[in-house]
Amino acid sequence: MTNHHGKEFLGFLATGPAVGIPETVWKWLACPKMKTDDLGRPVQAPYGMRKIEAALIDAGFKAAIIDPDHLNKHLPYAKALMFSHHDYFAFGPPSSTWWGITRREPVNYKSFMELVNRPEIRKEKERGMKILAGGPSVWQWLWREDMIEKVGVDTLVDGEGEKAVVKLAQMILDGEPLPKYVYIGADEAPSVDEIPEIKGASVNGLIEIMRGCARSCRFCSVTLRPTRYYPLEKIEKELMVNVRNGVKHGVVHSDDVLFYGAIGIYPRPEPLIKLHKLVKKYYKTIAWSHASLAAIRYSEEKYGLISKLMEIVFEDGNQSYLGVEVGIETGSARLAKEIMPAKSAPYKVEEYPETVEQAFKIMHENKIIPAGTMIVGLPEETEDDVYKTIELVDNLRPYRSILVPMFFVPMGYFKNKDWFTRIKLTEAHIELYRKVFWHDVYWGEEIIDHFYMKGPLYYPVRMTLKLFLRVAKRMMKKIESNLEYYLKK
Length: 489
Prior knowledge:
By secondary structure, the protein is α/β, with parallel strands linked by helices. Helix content is about 40%, strand content about 10%.
């Protein structure tokens, strides 16, 4: 239960093992403990959990998010313990990448194992308390059936759970047998009116503006959900909840922020301008959770929209940059055509590398700092595809950014594919990671010095990040000096 020092991107470190510094320092850097009240309720909690909490409270149940360190105060009286996690068993792309390279258990995995093995949970489970698990990584339990049995999970809830969890809660109170697995498909997903507003502050002021995505990339589970836009009035209510609870910096969340109010895949200026004016009315600084590169290029080339939005974001002088995660996925037009033909739309998929470069140029000029994720090890990937991605990395060097190559994980339409948990890196993969590493070091130092973690409050965190970069550079130089040995490993 953490807000990563108010810096969402630091959360990536929590998906890895401690590298070069003690684990206690690593955890303080990536996931410091959240403040709680006397009952153990955190002052901020993950947004998805806030939605489930709100759905249960609105339905009349006594429910609350409790920091794991305070569970012992409540478990003896609990009818049910509900887990949510972004990456239960570290099978997610960032965690599996760290794990595959270092061969060491990531911090998030170790922390969850410590939680579920607590004797007080086992004791109350024996008493009759029900255990439910949901959230974005609930699929991982299906790969760890041994843990379903060991923990005693009664029900897995897969999908948007606001309606389903209310039915399950009533079944628990009525003593009815629970289903082992509940899947909420597109036809059963809650409408906008059925999605409750949060009751307490969300981690880093994250607020949702829509659900779903129209691009239909085969590797992504988001494309399986229907697209729904929140009206501004609903968004404002959640902004007010966060501000009332002292949260004045926030993340605008969508799987593509520029799709808010769009017609299909075509962004529209009016709803986006209204949205940003509304959010900046409440928040001093904002970030975007995700945006697509094609939408960034189209919005700026068609309307000059990125420049207009950044004028709104920066005009009060409270922030000097905007952070966002963008999905590059690959530098190969051939592979893009195979797995994500609409990712480049309205531009031709054959032009996808050019679209990536143009979008990065636009972001650089408008002081948007992207974390660009790439997927390594896709089922259709060839060595030539990897070298095309390396070429793209070289072309992105002039643009302020952090690049994050991640191992392929089967989600979306690929969910039932065989995949490797013990990664076999090819020579091309090694070269890709080497190129990305030096890109990230180059820009990471510049970002820390001029944009990120500014002010005396963040000085210890900033210095620790710089120390980590120095250690990482030294380790990489050792690897590069004996690359043949590393490849054999």
